[in-house]
Structure formats: structure tokens, C-alpha cells
Specification:
By secondary structure, the chain is mostly helical. It is built from 5 helices and no strands. It has a single domain, classed as Ferritin. The protein is elongated. The relative contact order is 0.20. Keywords: DNA-binding. GO terms for molecular function: DNA binding; ferric iron binding; oxidoreductase activity, acting on metal ions. This is Starvation-inducible DNA-binding protein.
Amino acid sequence: MPEAFVQGIDDQARHKVIDLLNARLADVSALALAVKQAHWNLKGPGFIGVHELLDDVADNLREAQDTIAERCTILGGQAKGTVEVVAAESNIEPYPTDMEHIEDHIKALKDRFLKCGEMIRKAAETADEAGDPDSEDLFVEISRTMDKDCWFIGANGKQ
């Protein structure tokens, strides 16, 4: 295992959190790809607003990916973010490649954001229980942004 750049976290906890970080990295990466799939293909009333919103949301997810991956390596792990790992390890439902209507994309993205946000919050709890408050804080911050982005996306849908 590569060098760790932290002290005060026992090896068992570090390894547990590294695995947790990689699991959530796969999910956030899958979600980022889903957002771009929607961004490229959606059509309908409100197109430009949703299209531009999804660019901002994708930027937030890329930042989350980077933060998760860097924490993984800081703890002495290897960040595993290849498309092959994401496809094999993500818990996010595969995103349809044949949708066009904005309403369909909004529903599909909202559902995936809710699922991913729930897993991120559980990761925060697990990191705390493992004795890594910094990783807990990382997950809490990501969940806040993810919840806000879910709201922004979902508020575009029919009531």
C-alpha cells in the first residue's frame, strides 16, 4: 500500500475508509456521467436552463470526485476511478441512453441523486464510526452540495 499522509487513524480504520471512499467514488463518477448524458441529449421546453444547470451540476460532481480520490490517496490508498471500475462497482442504476424529453431526464437524475445522496450520508456515518472525522466531514460537505443540486434539478419537473 502507498504511503499514508495521516497519523492518529489506525490501519484497520484507514483501510475501511479507503474502501468506503472508493465505493462512493464509483457512485459519484457514475452520477457525473449520467448528468453529462442528460446534458447532451435532453430536449423540450426549458431546454437552455436545464442544459446550463447540468453543466454546473457536473462541475460539482467532478469536484466531489477529486476530493474523494485525493482523500483516498492521502490515507495511503489508491483511488480507483477508471470507467471499468465505475461500471463494475457503482451502485447507481445505469443511465438510459435513449431518452430525450426533459421531464424523463429530470426524473431519472432526481432518482439517482436521491440514491447517491443517501449512500454519501451513510458513508459519513461509517467514517465517523471508524474514527475518521475528516472523511466524515468530506462526505457531509458532498451530501450538502448533492442535495442542493437534486433540488435544483427536481424543481424543474412537473409537480
